[in-house]
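protien #1 (seq + structre)
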Amino acid sequence: MNTYLIYGNDYSLIKREIDKITKDINDVTTYDLSLEKVDNLLNDASVISMFGDKKVLIGENALFLSTTSSSINHDLDYLERYLEDDNHDNIVIFTLNENKLDERKKIVKLLKKHATVIHKDVIKDKDLPDFVRDEFSNNGYKIDYKTASYFVWYAGSNTDILISEINKMMMYKDDDKTIKIEDINEITSKKINDNIFDLSNAIMDKDFKKMYECYNDLMTLKEEPIKIIAMLGSSFTLVYQCKLLYNDGKRQNEIADILKVHPYRVKLAIENNYKINNIKEILKKLHNLDYEIKSGKIDKTVALDNFLLHL
């Protein structure tokens, strides 16, 4: 089958699957189906690549496969005819950053029949060491479970960051393909965790001088903006959860137990100057930034600069 549907809540895992499918293919075009009609993608899929090889058409935000409403009037009859004809040279990939499909829709049933459907849900914390081991193993590297668990503890549970750190480690260990704890200590610097913690606190305290000092330190360390955005997202999610639980009458120690974090982080989260609605807006902005960078709509450094500038 040359047609795929990849869906789930974790965009980084969806992107990982796309990278596997598109590996070694030069002609790749992406359509945002929340803004463009699926007809345009299908017309493109019917044309031979200008390079003479197989090409890939990616249809992101295929909201017509979910219960989410869309203002775009897609020609789903055209898509149904395309799916029922299995003789296609080019590859079409539909993606949906949601955890459920609308199983009642005819087009969903046809995709399940005529396409390869891949569901990429958020990885549970307890499964992250296995995820790390699989990522290394699939690329010809060795890491035991104890070391993989240490890797997760050291780098954090955000899959974006884990994938970034795994790629960095594989570049470093290109000759010796066995990952050891001393490699993690040497390559996966903990300094970013400390700086991100300081940056998050500066943002929450609205201490803009401190914020730019932390940001400049991170840029000096050549840390990836996408990693900074992911870690800021984790920090603000924690603040949001803490404030909700605190408003619900929970004490600080109870919140720390529920969220499995240090009580000091709970104290800082509750005392920061942002209201819950402000935090929701920041999380929404970070999510949009992450998507726009990964879809190539904006330069990653410019995106992060703009975010901090307009806080």
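ok now protien #2
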Amino acid sequence: MEESREAQKYLDASTRQLIWWRYKKHALAMIGLYLIVGLYVFSMFCEFLAPYSKDTRHFDMTYASPTKIRLFDDEGKLKRPFVREVKMDVDLKTQQIRYLEVAGTHYPIRLFVRGDSYEFWSLWEGNLHLFGVDAPGRLFLFGTDRMGRDLFSRCLYGSRISLSIGMFGVALSLLLGLVLGGVSGYVGGWVDSLIQRTIEVIRCFPSIPLWMGLAAAMPPHWHALKVYFMITIILSLVGWTDLARMVRGKLISLREEEFVLAARFAGAGHTRIIFRHLLPSFTSHIIVTVTLAIPHMVLAETALSFLGIGLRPPITSLGTLLKEAQNVTTIALYPWLLIPVAFVIATVLAFNFVGDGLRDAVDPYSR
């Protein structure tokens, strides 16, 4: 009886429900989904979540290591999380700067504190932050960079730029891939040959030199926002070819199916047949391809900015943050500058897990 109810449940369910039920069985895919949602939420509300502004400089705390968060005072009593005041000192033997805690100081970590002013999405001004400490205490979860800027705050701000480039870039690539791939697969003939030859020319260039050449063509005096949009467009113009070929192959295999012929005999135009009948028949495959393409966009932006030919200051992205860690000596002395790598790895792995889960879920009737 129970088995018959379960079978009837699957028979009555919609396609979306079947895909979702199967997707939930993929543990890594669910973890990746939660991680992606968390990353985008953190990046959307980075002004509120970050304890400092991305450009706030603490000149007496350059290259400061991550702040030690303590739970026990000098007498061994349990306290709410707190930090101590830190003073700069110089090691006379190695001549290296070090930071020593001032004994007896106690600055508890509080929620909803007033701090640096910011403009939330350029809509309104505010100075409320999720957490922080009272001056002169300072809290640097990931340490500081060479200018004394809080690395944790800059990672949150940088994630917004890198993740948004991935979304916008893939959206533009999706548009190009669906239109050009759909026309190529459905029309065929010389149109198909022209589009395929164009794809082959684009794919024959090595990725990094091609990105470098296109990015280097941008005038250095351009505004940072214009550079941001141009980098997004460049990544999209290079990344649409895989999706276009996938769409072309699907349309070639489906364009002679009975439902397509019926729509054609009913008087439907070519555009309607492509976008209302053919493309929806393999939407799940398109979603999987797009999901797996987003981390490639994020990695491309990170690589360009790391090489110094992508986004440039004052724009803060994960790539520009990693540019601080180009020197081997700097990494050896200040390893916390590599923390932005963890954000890149987490983003790429999360999208790959989601893509794998969607790939397994596109056949919802399989158990």
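The domain at 154-361 is CATH 1.10.3720.10 (MetI-like fold).
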